[in-house]
Design goal:
Strand content: under 5%
Radius of gyration: 18 Å
Order of helices and strands: HHHHEEHH
Largest sheet: 2 strands, antiparallel
Strand order of the largest sheet: 1-2
Length: 148
């Protein structure tokens, strides 16, 4: 059991560190930070989203997401479609500049995912993602118990 715990926690930590490093290195090419990856990626893939919707798909901390949105808007990557609604409910959309970067980021993400899963069949990949989703859901249930 101890080996299972160690293998699981070490692998998850390694995944997390590798993903952070890849995001940091890839975003440096665009003079952006790692927290901007998900915003640009999902806005490119899904189109206009409110900050709440973006937060839901990114699973990003609200404060971090807010800072990322502010930076991306200030620097011309995204725009807020409505100036009258509350900011959190206003759709955010990529500008031309954001669209160009979003396209490049999406291509890099797709390439990195292919490299990361080299040697896996579609079937084994599907099993892996189902398993990770189940573990994530189970861990969230355990965390929810702490809040009760």
């Amino acid at each position: 059991m101890e080996e299972r715990f160690q293998t699981f926690t070490v692998l998850i930590s390694k995944f997390s560190r590798s993903i952070r490093k890849i995001k940091t290195e890839e975003m440096a090419k665009f003079d952006l930070k790692s927290q901007h990856v998900s915003c640009l990626y999902y806005l490119y893939k899904m189109g206009a989203l409110t900050a709440k919707e973006l937060g839901d798909v990114c699973e990003e901390d609200k404060a971090n997401l807010s800072r990322a949105i502010e930076y991306l808007e200030t620097n011309g990557y995204i725009t807020c479609e409505s100036k009258t609604q509350k900011r959190y409910k206003s759709p955010l959309k990529l500008t031309e500049k954001g669209e160009a970067i979003g396209k490049q980021i999406t291509a890099r993400v797709d390439h990195i995912l292919e490299e990361a899963s080299a040697g896996m069949t579609e079937e084994s990949r599907a099993v892996l993602y189902r398993s990770l989703s189940l573990i994530s859901s189970n861990l969230q249930k355990i965390c929810d118990q702490y809040e009760e």
